[in-house]
Amino acid sequence: MYAPAHNFLVCLQCVGEENWVDSRTIYIGHKEPPPSTEAFIQQRFPDNRIVSSKYTFWNFVPKNMFEQFRRVANFYFLIIFLVQLIIDTPTSPITSGLPLFFVITVTAIKQGYEDWLRHKSDNAVNQCPVHVVQHGKVVRKQSRKLRVGDVVFVKEDESFPCDLILLSSSREDGTCFVTTASLDGESSHKTLYAVQDTKAYRTEQEVDAIHATIECEQPQPDLYKSFIQIIGICSENLLLRGATLKNTEHIYAVVIYTGMETKMALNYQSKSQKRSAVEKSMNAYLVVYLCILISKALINTLLKYVWQAEANRDEPWYNQRTESEKQRHIVIRAFTDFLAFMVLFNYIIPVSMYVTVEMQKFLGSYFIMWDDEMFDEELGERAVVNTSDLNEELGQVEYVFTDKTGTLTENNMEFIECCVDGHVYVPHAICNGQELFFRALCLCHTVQVKEEETVDGIKHGLHQGKSTSFYISSSPDEVALVEGMKRLGFTYLRLKDSHMEILNREDEIERFELLEVLTFDSVRRRMSVIVRASTGNLYLFCKGADSAIFPRVISGKVDEVKARVERNAVEGLRTLCVAYRPLSPEQYEEVCHLLSGAKLALQDRDKRLAEAYYLIEKDLILLGATAVEDRLQEKAADTIESLHKAGMKVWVLTGDKMETAAATCYASKLFHRNTQILELTTKRTEEQSLHDVLFDLSRTVLRHLSGDCTDYGLIIDGATLSAVMRPGQEDSSSGNYKEIFLEICRNCSAVLCCRMAPLQKAQIVKLIKDSKEHPITLAIGDGANDVSMILEAHVGIGIMGKEGRQAVRNSDYAIPKFKHLKKILLVHGHYYYIRISELVQYFFYKNVCFIFPQFLYQFFCGFSQQPLYDTAYLTLYNISFTSLPILLYSLIEQHINMDILKKDPSLYRSECFFFLIFHIFDTEGRENSNRVPKPLTAGVYLLSSSGRTVPLNFLALDTHYWTWINHFVIWGSLIFFVVFSLLWGGIIWPFLNYQRMYYVFMQMLSSGPAWLSIILLITASLLPDVVKKVICRALMCCSLTVCGELLNFCLSMTWKTFYVTSFLT
Amino acid sequence: MMASSYNAKEEDGHHSGAPAHGGAAAAAAKSKKPDNTAFKQQRLPAWQPILTAGTVLPAFFVIGLIFIPIGIGLFVTSNNIREFEIDYTGVDVDSPCYSCARNFSWNNTAPCLCSVDFTLEQPFESNVFMYYGLSNFYQNHRRYVKSRDDSQLYGDRSALTNPSKECEPYRMSDGQAIAPCGAIANSLFNDTLELYHIDSNGTRNTIPLVKKGIAWWTDKHVKFRNPGGNNNLTAAFRGTSKPVNWRKPVYDLDPSDPDNNGFINEDFIVWMRTAALPTFRKLYRIIQKKAVTTPTLPSGRYVLNISYNYPVLSFDGRKRMILSTISWMGGKNPFLGIAYITVGSICFFLGVVLLIIHHKYDTRNNSADIPN
C-alpha cells in the first residue's frame, strides 16, 4: 500500500509580501520540488547542535583574554604593565605583570572549567542517538546531525531532540501526550495533535512517502506563543525540544527548528543577567581612584620639575644622566616621569579585588544553600542560588513585592462549598441540587487523571477501584474542584477518545464528547469547554472569575449568587462562577467556524483567538459559584511582621479579587485592624474622576503625616492602575498622577494591588524601581505570572510552589517557603551586605595605606620615583600577604549573632550608612576610620638602610567573630610574611640581578628598637579606633557621624605622617 | 512535620496515594538536605570580643603602665649616649677647610689637608663609633640607587668585564669596563679622617681607629666577593678600569691590609648600602675601649685631620664627623622614648576619660532602664 507521491500538499499560502522573509519553507523528508516550479532558493538552516558553551578549544585564549580585558581594572593593569615594559620605570614589569597574570589565570581557569562542563553536557546532548526515517527505514543518527526537514521517530519517555511538527502517532486518534517539566516545570500531560492530513500515515514507508512543504515563521523565543502558520497546523502540532513523550508508544514528526533555533535554546539566550549595585559602585570607585592616582602623579611630576629647577639638583656630579637621556626633550622627559609616577602609585588600585569579591560571592552563596533552616522537609527542597552576584543586595531591600497565591498562601486548595441557585452545598452533605452544575464542574477543566505514578507538581490520591490514580493539573483550583465534586458524588474518571467519562451518583458512567477547549488565560480570566452529551445536546460550560462571568450572564439567580460570592470573598476564599450555554447545532457550526478561522490566522493569531472566544462565551446562564480555600502559609504573618519591622515595605500583587486578597492581607497581618484602608479601585473611580480620588487620598495621607501616625493601607486594582500609569492625553498631568500615586504609596505601610495582569506586576516594580530614591526592590512569587516581576526587580526570589518551576528558573534565589524569606533577608542578606562592604573598603583602605608612604617618600628622594618597597613585596602584597585573611573574614564574619538578627529585625537597617558615607567622603577618610587594620609601614624602614616595609596586617580589631579559621589565616599570613622575608633576604638569588634585600630583614629583626617601634606603631595605630569604638558603644551610636569620620581621618593621617617623618630623620 | 501532613491527608480521606508519594519525597529530602555541620550552618565556635568600656579600660591602664616605664627607660638610655658632631665642610671663610673646599678640583693629585680642632666636654666611656655624615646627598635617588651591578660585586667574572646596563653612564671608561661600575661606586666617599687627642702637655696622641667590622658580616663574607678569590687582585682586575672619580684602583683601596681590598673593602661595602634619606651618616671607624679604668675618649682637646678629597659644595652639601657611643638600642634616638611616653600617657589619659564616660553612661542607662 504505497501511497501516491503527490497525494496532498500542505501548500504554500499567500503570505503578505513583507512577511515572506520572516518565514521558512520546510520540505518534509528533503523532497524539494523540481527546480522548474518556481524560483527556488535553498534556505540554510543550522544543524541540530546545541552550543551553550562560550568558547572552543581554539578560541579560548584570545576570546577569554578579550572578555577579561574588557574589565576596567584588568585593562588598567594591562596598560600599566605595557608602560613598564616600554619605558624605564621604578618597578620591574613583574610587579604588575605577575598579579595580573595570577588574576587572569584564576579567572580563566574558573571560566574554562565552567565551559568545559558546558561542553560536556553539550556533547552528551548532541551525541545522544535519534531515530530518523530515511528511505522508508528507521536509522539511528546522532542528535547533532539532525537537519530541518528530517522525519524523526520518537518513542515513549524519550525527549524531543528539537522542535518538531507531529505528523502521526501510534494512538488511534493521532494525539500524543507530552510533559514540559524541563521547560516550564509543568508536569501535567499536555495533549498534542497530529496534523490532520498526515495522521493516517503510520509506518515508516508511509511517512517517508509524504510529499509536502511547511511554511512557518522564523524562530521566536516566546515559549507560549504559537507561531506556526499553516493550514491545518497550529501550536497543537508543535513538539518542543526538551519536552518528553508520555503515554504514547511512538510518533513520527518532522523537524522544523534545530539547534540554537529551538525555543528552548532561544529562551536560555534571552535571559539577561542582573548586576549588583555594589559592582556598579565598585567601578565608580575605580574611577575615583584613578583620579586620585593621576592627580598624585601630576603633583609629583610638577614638584619634581620645580625642585629640579635649582642648579645641581637634577644632576650632581655623583649622579649623571647618560648621554641619550640628556638629549631627550624636556616634554618627553616630563611625560615619562609622569608615567613612572603612575606606575609607582598604581598599587592604589587593588588588582585582586575583583577576584576576591567574586570568590567571596561565589563561596558565600554556598552558605545560603547549606542553610539547614531553609530546608523544607515536606518538599525535600533547599534554597537554591541562581545568581551569586546579588548576595549583598539581599541586605538592602526596601520594597518587597509578593505574590499572594502560592506565595503567601499554600496554594493547597480545599473545596469548601458551592452555591447553586442560591443554595449552599458543602461536601459530605446530601444534596439534590441541579446536577447540571456538578456536571459542569466535572467537565469544564483541564485536569488529567494519572494512574499510580508520582510526578512533581500536584498529586492527589484518588481511590477508584483497584488502581490508584491522581488528578493532575497546572491549576490547583481545578484539582480542588474536581475532588470536591467527587465528594459530592460526581467522579471524573478519564478522558478517553475525546470522551470525558463521569461516574455519577447512581454509579453510572456518563460520557460526554469533548469538542473544544477554550483554554484559560489571564486576560479573559475564564475557560470554557464545548461538549456533546450522549443525548446529542451541545453545551458550552464556562468557568471563571466572577468579574469575568457576571457581565456575560443573561439569566440565572445572579443576585443571590453574587451575594454569596462576595461573602465568601470577604472570608478569604477563592471564588469561581460557573455558567453554561446550550448550543444548537447551527450555533456550534458557527463556533467551529470562528475558532478554526482564528486558529489558522497568520497574523495576530492570539488576538483573533481572543476575539473568537469573546464571541463564543456570551449569553451564559449562571449556574452557581464555588468557594475554595487557600490556607495561609506557615508563619507568613510572622514573616511579614518581621519585614515590616525591618523597615521594608511589603506590597502584595495578586490577580485575585479585591475582597479575597484583602482578607488574606488581614490574615497575614499586612493590614492590621487599625490600619486605615485607602481604596483606589474602579468602584471609586466610577463615582469620582481619577483625578479627584488621587488628590483626596494624597490629602488624607499628607494630613495625617503631620499628626498622629496612623497606619495606611492602600488597595488598588489593575484597571485603576493602568489608568494611573497611562501616558495621558493631558501630557503633563499624567506624570503628575504617577507622582501623586507614588507619594501616596510612600506613605502607606502596606499596599495591595489586586486584579493584576502579570505585566502590570512588572510595571509596578519598575515604577518603584525608577522612582527618585532608587530603592532596592525584591519580588517574590511562585508562578509563571510572577516571572515578569521577578525579572524586573533587583532581586527576584522564586518559591518552589505548585505552579511549576518557571518562577524558580527565572529567579535569582529560590526558597521552598515564604517563611524562609525572613532568614535569607534578615540574616544572610544582612551579613553579606556588611561583609562585602567591609571587603571593598578593606581593599581600598589597605592599598591607600600601602601607597601613601610611597607618596610621602618622594619628597625625600628628590621625586626620583624611588620605590619604598622591594619588588617582591610590591608583587605579593596584594596577592598573598593580604588577600586571604580578608576573603575568609568576609566569608565568616558575623558582627551580630544570627539569632539576635532574627529576633530583632530592626537591626536590618542599622549599619546601612556605610556606603552613604563612603560616597560622600573621600574613601581615604572612610577607610582610615575604623574598619580595617593599619599596616605597619614606616617602622622597619628606619632600621634597614635600603628601607623596606613590613606590610603586617592586623585584622584583629574588626573581627567580631573569631573562629579557628580566622586565627589560622590571620596568623598564617603573618607567618607567611615572616617566612617569605627570611627566605627572600636570606639567600643570594641567582636569577636576580640585584641583591638589595640581602639580610635586611634579619638585620632588622636583630635590632631591639625595631621591635619596640613595631609594638609602638601597632598600639598607636589601633588606639584611635579602639577609643572610637568604645565611645560609640557607650553612647549607643552605631551609625557613624560625619564629624567622627573626619576627625578620625585627620587623626590617622596625622599619625601616619608623623611616624614616617619622625622615624626617617 | 511529615507525620502531621500525612494525618491531614488521611483525614481528608486520601489514604492510598499518600504513602507512596511520601516515601519518594522522603528519599529526595534526604539527598537534598544540607549537612548540619557547624561550618555550613555558620555556627562555628567563635570567640567574640566585644570592645566595651569595661573590657578596654583595664587594657588602657595596663598599656599606659607598661609603656610609660619603657619610654622612660628608652629616654634615659638615649640620654646617656654621648654624641659629638662637627661640620668640616668649610663653607665659612674662617673655617679651616675653607680653602680646600674652594680650591677643589678633580685633577689635583695631591690631597688637600686641613685640620679641625674641637673639645669634648665629657668623656666617652665605652666603645666609640666614628661616623661621617653627608647632607643633601641623594643616595636614594632612583637613578643612583640602581646604578650598580650586584653580580659584578659578587665576583662574577663575566659581569666584571661586561657590567650591567644599569651602570650607565659609569659603565665603560676608555673602552674598558669600570670595576666597580655605577654611580654609587663612582662616588665613594674618599675623605680620610684621622683623630688626635691633645693631652694636657700639648702632645698629639694618635687615636687608633679600627676599620674592621664596620660592615655587615654577611655583606663582607657573602654578598661581596672579589673575582677569583683574594689572591693577586691586580691580576684579577686586569682589563678593567677604575671608576672615573677614584684616585686609586679598587684593588689598592687599603694598602695597609691586603684582605681589605677589592670589592670586600669595608669602607666600600658600607658606602654601597645606600642611605634612605638625603641626610645620612655612615660608620667610618670604631674606637675601641682599651682599659676598664680610662675612658675611650677622655674629655679634652682633639684635632681632626682631614685629607679633603670629596667635593660637596657644588650641590650645596655638608660633611660632618660624628663620634658616638652606643647602647643596646643603637645610637642616640630620643624619639622612641618620647613616643613611648606619649602613647603611654595618652592611653592612661583616655583610660581616665573613658572611665568617666563609662560611669556617666552607666548611671544614665540604668535610670533609663528602670521605667522599662
Automatic annotation (TrEMBL), chain A:
Keywords: ATP-binding, Cell membrane, Endoplasmic reticulum, Endosome, Lipid transport, Magnesium, Membrane, Metal-binding, Nucleotide-binding, Phosphoprotein, Translocase, Transmembrane, Transmembrane helix, Transport. Belongs to the cation transport ATPase (P-type) (TC 3.A.3) family. Type IV subfamily. Its main location: membrane. Its cofactor is Mg(2+). This is Phospholipid-transporting ATPase. GO terms for biological process: phospholipid translocation; positive regulation of myotube differentiation. The active site is at D403. It is a multi-pass membrane protein. The chain crosses the membrane at residues 72-87, 284-307, 338-357, 968-992, 998-1023, 1030-1055. ATP binds at D403, K404, T405, E478, F520, K543, R574, T654, G655, D656, R755, K761, N785, D786. SUPFAM superfamilies: Calcium ATPase, transduction domain A, Calcium ATPase, transmembrane domain M, HAD-like, Metal cation-transporting ATPase, ATP-binding domain N. GO terms for cellular component: early endosome; endoplasmic reticulum membrane; plasma membrane; recycling endosome. It is found in: Cell membrane; Early endosome; Endoplasmic reticulum membrane; Membrane. It catalyses: a 1,2-diacyl-sn-glycero-3-phospho-L-serine(out) + ATP + H2O = a 1,2-diacyl-sn-glycero-3-phospho-L-serine(in) + ADP + phosphate + H(+); a 1,2-diacyl-sn-glycero-3-phosphoethanolamine(out) + ATP + H2O = a 1,2-diacyl-sn-glycero-3-phosphoethanolamine(in) + ADP + phosphate + H(+); ATP + H2O + phospholipidSide 1 = ADP + phosphate + phospholipidSide 2. Residues 38-96 form the P-type ATPase N-terminal domain. It comes from Scophthalmus maximus (Turbot). GO terms for molecular function: ATP binding; ATP hydrolysis activity; ATPase-coupled intramembrane lipid transporter activity; magnesium ion binding. Mg(2+) binds at D403, T405, D782, D786. Residues 808-910, 912-1035 form the P-type ATPase C-terminal domain. Component of a P4-ATPase flippase complex which consists of a catalytic alpha subunit ATP11A and an accessory beta subunit TMEM30A.
From TrEMBL, chain B:
Coiled coil: none annotated. This is Cell cycle control protein. Residues 16-27 have a biased composition (Low complexity). The lineage of its organism: Eukaryota, Metazoa, Chordata, Craniata, Vertebrata. It is a multi-pass membrane protein. Its main location: membrane. It is found in: Apical cell membrane; Cytoplasmic vesicle, Secretory vesicle membrane; Golgi apparatus; Membrane. Residues 1-27 are annotated as: Disordered. Belongs to the CDC50/LEM3 family. Keywords: Cell membrane, Cytoplasmic vesicle, Disulfide bond, Glycoprotein, Golgi apparatus, Lipid transport, Membrane, Transmembrane, Transmembrane helix, Transport. GO terms for biological process: phospholipid translocation.
